[in-house]
Write a structure and sequence with these properties.
Blueprint (H helix, E strand, L loop, with lengths): L6 E5 L4 H11 L4 E6 L12 H11 L2 E6 L5 H15 L4 E4 L14 H26 L6 E4 L15 H20 L6 E6 L7 H6 L2 H5 L5 H11 L10 E3 H7 L24
Parallel strand pairs: 1-2, 1-4, 2-3, 4-5, 5-6, 6-7
């Protein structure tokens, strides 16, 4: 099992794609840190750090649920310290936590601007900064950030400038850090879905028709697994698309990933 005993720190992993990546890696016997800010049941959203911890253990992994708001530097540093104290180090960081608010410039409240900026770009930088000293000591270390290719077409900026800036900020962390830490042997990459993924973010922010036209989070977990088990020295600075990763590993049938196989798929943002 390729990820057995690997220590994997996953932000925003109490639900959605983060949870799915946690469960995928747990099947190998990995040690999963569930770092998220939901520790009590939410009235409308499924999952807490404790429910996912239980699922991780049932899947064959070892879980460490930690209450973390990635906007808070102290909480991130404390969580990383607790991880190292319990498991002895960190092998992989998955920057999954993200906030979405789609609005044009004149309709973007600064409170929301601050939210997407701090949860997306700032937290990716912060979590990476705090984890990298430990990753440098690991065998085959990786950082995987769930952010899009840096496609600088104006159409991706004009309708939701603040959100695009925040997600591209995550991707710029990949671009810069991959080069900065190449000599340390850390594989630093981004992963983005070809289609929308059936998560709470899509359910809340998009019409129901788009949710039905989405794929299950498992496609992202399967693609992430292939990246995280690759040679970190040879796999860095990439902006991967989920189905392209899987196709490169021999997957030809993606139909089982569709939420509704009878509905044409809907392309995600930032993908032409």
């Amino acid at each position: 099992m390729k990820l057995k005993d690997k220590v994997i720190f996953i932000t925003g992993s109490s639900r959605g794609i983060g949870r799915e990546i946690a469960l995928k890696c747990a099947k190998d016997g990995a040690k999963i840190v569930i770092a998220a800010k939901t520790d009590q049941p939410h009235p409308t959203l499924e999952g807490t750090i404790y429910t996912v911890a239980k699922e991780v253990e049932e899947a064959g992994g070892i879980a460490l649920p930690l209450l973390v708001d990635v906007r808070e530097e102290g909480m991130v540093k404390d969580a990383v310290a607790k991880t190292v104290q319990k498991f002895g180090g960190i092998d992989i960081l998955v920057n999954n936590a993200s906030a979405i608010f789609l609005a044009p410039t004149l309709e973007m409240p600064m409170k929301r601007f601050d939210l997407v900026s701090s949860v997306n770009a700032r937290a990716t930088f912060l979590c990476s900064q705090v984890c990298i000293p430990h990753l440098k000591k690991a065998a085959n270390p990786h950082i995987l950030t769930l952010s899009p290719p840096l496609n600088m077409q104006a159409k991706w900026f004009k309708d939701y400038l603040a959100y695009t800036m925040s997600k591209y900020g995550m991707s710029m962390c990949t671009l810069g850090m991959a080069e900065e830490f190449k000599s340390a042997g850390i594989g630093i990459n981004s992963l983005w879905p070809r289609t929308t993924i059936a998560t709470a973010a899509i359910a809340v922010n998009f019409p129901k028709e788009i949710l039905r036209a989405s794929r299950k989070p498992s496609i992202m977990a399967d693609a992430a697994y292939e990246i995280l088990t690759s040679d970190s020295k040879k796999t860095t600075g990439n902006f991967f698309i989920d189905e392209e990763v899987l196709a490169a590993h021999g997957v030809t049938d993606f139909s089982h990933y569709a939420l509704d196989p009878n509905v044409p798929l809907f392309n995600d943002l930032f993908v032409n």
